[in-house]
Amino acid sequence: MKKIALSVAALALTAGSALAADLPSRKAPAYIPPPPPPPMWTGFYVGLNAGGTFGGSNTINTAAFGAFPFAPLGNVVPYTFASAGLATTSLSAGNNGGFIGGGQIGYNWQFYNSFVVGVEADIQGIAASSSAVNAWSAASPVAGETLISGTSASRSIDYIGTVRGRLGWLFTPTFLLYGTGGLAYGGVSMTTGITQQIQGAPAVVNPWFGAGAFSDTRTGWTAGGGVEWMFMPNWSAKVEYLYYDLGSVTFNTSALISVNNAGAPFTAAFPQTTTRFDGHIVRAGLNYHFNWGAPAPVVAKY
Fold this sequence. Notes:
Layout: H1 2-22, E1 43-55, E2 59-66, H2 76-86, E3 89-92, E4 98-111, E5 115-127, E6 131-139, E7 146-172, E8 175-199, E9 208-232, E10 235-252, E11 256-259, E12 265-289
Antiparallel strand pairs: 1-4, 1-12, 2-3, 2-12, 4-5, 5-7, 6-7, 7-8, 8-9, 9-10, 10-12, 11-12
């Protein structure tokens, strides 16, 4: 009997183990964290901007040298050097500033979650950017006679554009701090006029005048930085500062040549004008992001 009881107990234990093995497991599945959000900054964008600009270097310099294309007789020598000296001056052109507005297009690439690199091109017009100056001076190269000279100049930047790289850091997923720099170009123009006249010298009957003008597209560089906020899906607003430098411009004005009452040359001076086109831009912008280059969101599977 004892052997029969032991056999029954062993058989029961074996059947219970087999039955337990067939039951479903209650162990929880391994936790798989959700994927990170897709990079919302990657892709192409276009936008508009508006703001203000003001000049950096505000000085216009004129320099002249005297010459004698004829026999230096009588008072020709002192008047020639006086004419060149009075035509050499430095004038303040004001801040050369005004309203600025235009558009931009660019591409961003977000990497390592918190960094954004990209390229942007923009162009905008400038209103009320010209300035004018006027200076008068006098000298007495000969006793009883006075040479009076007046210089006027104006300059303007009609439009300005840039092609820049951008590198930024995401302070939050929607708030970008960035630095930027690259090529700048702009349409610049300038005019200079110099008028001179002798008082108390009856031998010289007419005042004389020299004029010059310059207009061209200049290239240079720009650098700055800004902040950009993705306030809605596909929409961002930015505030940006840029310094630009289109370099210096030097051009000639016509010669300052006077004649006496017999039509013979009396003085001759040859002026040049030099100025620098640089300045500061502060503007706000609005961008629409197409996100064509962004990868599709990843759907987690469990």
